[in-house]
Amino acid sequence: MSSPVVLVPEPVARPWGGVGLPALGLERGPHERVGEWWLPTDAFPLLVKVIDARENLSIQLHPDDERARAAGLPNGKTEAWYVLDAEPDARLLVGLADGVGTSEFLDRAEAGEDVSPLLRSIRPRPGDVVFVPPGTVHAILAGVVVLEAQQVSDTTYRVFDWNRRPARELHLADARLAVRDDPDAGVVPASPETADGGLRHVVRLECPKFALADLIATGPGRVPLGPKAEMWTARTGTARVVWPGGEATLAPGRFLLLPAGVETVDVLPEEPTFHAVRIREP
Question: Going by DSSP bridges, is the β-strand pair 274-280/5-7 parallel, antiparallel, or unpaired?
Answer without folding.
Answer: unpaired
